[in-house]
Write a structure and sequence with these properties.
- The chain has 2 helices and 2 strands, in the order H-H-E-E.
- By secondary structure, it is mainly alpha-helical.
- It has one domain.
- The protein has a two-stranded antiparallel sheet.
- The longest helix has 20 residues.
- It is elongated and about 40 Å long.
Length: 56
């Protein structure tokens, strides 16, 4: 089926966007920092002007 991957990817992104505000509070600050580094996002998320993304 053409477009199935796009549908699954879109659903995963929407699901992650809905779940992340609730699940993020359950992690310790050190764990959140590690996850942000693994995703390529650096900075203090409480101040969006300090967030930088690693572009490879």
């Amino acid at each position: 089926m053409i477009g199935l991957g796009t549908i699954i990817n879109t659903a995963a992104i929407v699901h992650g966007g809905i779940i992340s505000p609730f699940a993020g509070k359950r992690f310790k600050p050190e764990q959140r920092a590690s996850i942000n580094k693994a995703c390529g996002a650096f900075g203090d998320w409480s101040d969006p002007s300090t967030v930088e993304f690693l572009i490879v």
